[in-house]
């Protein structure tokens, strides 16, 4: 089976995977910018519904978690498809995810609560899901800053360890999403399930199997 | 839209002053009618702001563009397109489309349980028997958004007077329609359909408690709970059960769909209370649909004078 698969796809695949990765690179930026542009257009057209602040909060949150999922999908794809060139998509995807997380946070503080600090603290400190989201956002900020090549060189081996925190971010945002909706609302579960699969992929036994098989 | 959201925040003190100021205005303007309301006549929101010269006999609140606190009505567009009606979908802005072809005629409401006069009534019979009046109420969702809606309805008390609860009756239990073919959200197996809600008998008899058949002067649209729904303005919106097919007088406290789905999050009383937070979010503030900044949430959604007697001596943190 394995031989058959590799026989039938490996030839053209070997030829085109470098090219495909270089096509995907600009597409990552275009695709990641689209939700922002659509959001601004809908704002301009007054097309954000009855509660626009809620709408843009949800949109930016969903975009951030989607891009985080894509970021975490890069390594499994690289390993399974032996596609080393795809690795260069990881940083832009991660940075775009952090960007939307930042906008999501800014909307919450500046628009949703309009800098009403007392109400904001009251709502944030008593609520697990806000605290989880905030923690995830802080980690993403640190990871974004240290994603600069300067820090990659400076931190050396520590960089890899530090950036494994993205797994923790994945867990935190999945719980953040689940706790933000009412019981029985199923919207977060597909996101959480995919996140769970991608994180499970990192577990040592699965990694051992992957390295042996692919 | 303000560039300075912080500048739009109204401090709570200002709010209360404004409320008192408007009340004073109302008293000066309507005099006798409101004085009567302060004594024994049930309070009807909306009538305080009637222009001078109207009489107590006018339909209360008819033509008023604000609630009794001076806040404007939420647009018809928002009221009919932003709906929590999980029988259709959990997406608030998807309900109107899915509910478009929902058949609300013919419709019957079965009234029974611990009553002397049980019966099944068609909606036409109910409409004939109980003339509606306009009531402008605030609706505060447990999700911390709110609206001001002009309902057409009649007090539930009028219907209760006719069916005559027996002395054993302690609660009213309401049931929504169950028809997964017409209401696709009922295929969601995570909820114990049909939708059930309940009121204590004295809550049900309170004059604010309304059975509504219309809003904005028109018949209810399916997304708003057509053809007949409950409106209990001092409680979170989910208590105001939609598309009612059954009303029973019972002895035991009914278990609502939300109590069963999230017992630590949704209690029987579900009174709007800025001091008792939902386990996962604060209830201290809310956003009025159509407004930019949040505003403080009022105790009992601003109906404290009318309903606080119902809960004297009760710990509202325990009875959330």
Describe the structure.
The complex is a heterodimer of chains A (214) and B (320). The model of chain A has no long low-confidence stretch (mean pLDDT 92). Chain A is mostly helical. Helices cover 82% and strands 0% of the residues of chain A. Chain B has two domains: 6-67, no CATH class; 71-311, Sulfite Oxidase, Chain A, domain 2. In chain B, the strands form two sheets. In chain B, strands 3, 4, 7, 8, 9, 11 and 12 form a seven-stranded mixed β-sheet that branches. With 320 residues, chain B is of the alpha+beta class. Helices cover 21% and strands 20% of the residues of chain B. Chain A binds chain B through residues 49-51, 53-54, 110-116, 119, 122-123, 126-130, 179-180, 182-187, and chain B through 5-6, 8-9, 77-78, 81-82, 86, 90, 92-93, 143, 145, 188, 190-191, 261-262, 265, 277, 280-282, 284-285, 287, 289-290, 292-294.
Topology:
The complex is a heterodimer of chains A (214) and B (320).
Chain A: H1 2-44, H2 52-81, H3 90-112, H4 117-125, H5 128-145, H6 149-155, H7 157-163, H8 165-180, H9 188-200, H10 204-213
Chain B: H1 12-30, H2 32-39, H3 76-81, H4 95-99, E1 108-113, E2 119-122, H5 123-129, E3 133-140, E4 145-155, H6 156-163, E5 171-176, E6 196-200, H7 201-205, E7 210-215, E8 218-219, E9 229-231, E10 244-250, H8 257-261, E11 285-288, E12 295-296, H9 304-307
Parallel strand pairs in B: 1-10, 4-11
Antiparallel strand pairs in B: 1-2, 3-4, 4-7, 5-6, 5-10, 7-8, 7-9, 11-12
């Amino acid at each position: 089976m394995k031989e058959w698969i590799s026989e039938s796809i490996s030839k053209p695949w070997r030829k085109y995977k470098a090219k495909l990765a270089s096509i995907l690179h600009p597409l990552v930026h275009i695709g990641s910018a689209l939700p922002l542009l659509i959001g601004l257009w809908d704002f301009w057209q007054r097309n954000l519904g009855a509660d626009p602040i809620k709408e843009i909060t949800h949109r930016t949150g969903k975009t951030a978690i989607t891009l985080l999922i894509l970021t975490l999908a890069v390594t499994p794809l690289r390993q399974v498809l032996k596609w080393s060139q795809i690795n260069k998509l990881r940083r832009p995807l991660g940075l775009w995810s952090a960007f939307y997380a930042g906008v999501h946070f800014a909307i919450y503080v500046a628009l949703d609560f309009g800098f009403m600090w007392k109400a904001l603290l009251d709502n944030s400190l008593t609520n697990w899901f806000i605290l989880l989201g905030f923690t995830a956002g802080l980690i993403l900020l640190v990871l974004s800053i240290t994603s600069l090549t300067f820090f990659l060189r400076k931190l050396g081996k520590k960089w890899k360890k530090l950036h494994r925190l993205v797994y923790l971010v994945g867990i935190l945002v999945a719980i953040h999403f689940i706790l933000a909706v009412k019981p029985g609302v199923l919207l977060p579960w597909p996101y959480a399930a995919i996140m769970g699969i991608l994180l499970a992929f990192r577990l040592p036994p699965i990694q051992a199997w992957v390295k042996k098989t692919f | 839209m303000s560039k300075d959201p912080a500048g739009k925040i109204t401090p709570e003190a200002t709010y209360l002053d404004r409320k008192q100021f408007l009340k004073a205005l109302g008293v000066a303007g309507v005099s006798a009618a409101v004085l009567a309301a302060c004594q024994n006549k049930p309070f009807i929101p909306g009538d305080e702001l009637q222009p001078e010269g109207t009489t107590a006999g006018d339909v209360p609140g008819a033509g008023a563009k604000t609630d009794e606190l001076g806040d404007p009505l939420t647009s018809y567009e928002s009221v009919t397109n932003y709906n929590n009606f999980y029988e259709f979908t959990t997406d608030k802005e998807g309900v109107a489309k899915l509910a478009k072809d929902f058949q609300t005629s013919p419709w019957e409401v079965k009234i029974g349980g611990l009553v002397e006069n049980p019966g099944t009534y068609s909606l036409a019979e109910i409409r004939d028997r109980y003339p509606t009046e306009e009531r402008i109420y605030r609706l505060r969702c447990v999700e911390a958004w709110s609206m001001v809606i002009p309902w057409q309805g009649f007090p539930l008390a009028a219907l209760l007077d006719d069916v005559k609860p027996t002395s054993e009756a302690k609660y009213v239990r309401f049931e929504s329609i169950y028809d997964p073919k017409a209401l696709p959200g009922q295929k969601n197996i995570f909820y114990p359909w049909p939708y059930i809600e309940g009121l204590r008998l004295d809550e049900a008899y309170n004059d604010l408690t309304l059975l509504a058949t219309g809003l904005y002067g028109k018949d209810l649209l399916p997304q708003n709970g057509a053809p007949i729904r409950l409106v209990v303005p001092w409680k979170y919106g989910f208590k105001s059960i939609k598309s009612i097919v059954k009303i029973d007088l019972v002895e035991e406290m009914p278990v609502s769909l939300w109590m069963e789905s999230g017992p630590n999050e949704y209690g029987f009383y579900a009174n709007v209370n800025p001091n008792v937070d939902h386990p996962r979010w604060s209830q201290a503030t809310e956003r009025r649909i159509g407004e930019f900044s949040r505003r403080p949430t009022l105790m009992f959604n601003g109906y404290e004078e009318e309903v606080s007697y119902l809960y004297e001596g009760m710990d509202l943190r325990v009875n959330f």
